[in-house]
Amino acid sequence: MRKLTLPLKEIDLISLKTGELLFLSGKVYTARDMAHKRLKSAIRNGKKLPLPLKDQTIYYTGPTPAPKEKVIGSCGPTTSSRMDDFTPSLLKAGLKGMIGKGSRSKEVIAAIKRYKAVYFLALAGCGALLSKYIKKARVIAYKDLGTEAIYELELKAFPVIVGIDSRGRSVYVK
Which of 78, 84, 139, 143 has the CA that lies 20 to 30 A from 65? Predict the structure, then answer.
């Protein structure tokens, strides 16, 4: 399996192929439904975002609190289609990667292709296992949202599958 360091570089992005297995290392940000709603509103209203979007990756997860002596609790992917209404505007603002589970809408696939981004699939039902690949975690925005706050995570060899590549090819569409 190939190893990639985040943030994503264009040369890596365009070389990825649907179905490819990867290990990701580097910084990602978490965001679920409510955080996405706030981010889209900030973009629409020309406000400063609480995280950099350019070339970054968002992991659709809401981590559970960290048990004693652990960096983070269970941290598995949530259903990505719930973010589909917000995704095109985030991609337009510079987002290059997303990690989640499940298929995406035709509009999101078109936006991934238009903005040369990628959608990664994480192993569903394996939140406790996936947390072992997270080496640092801290809340950076929207603390009032609890588990839906935006976290900055440091990944080390986090396993993913390319679900939709930068050419818009999807593992869900034959």
Answer: 84
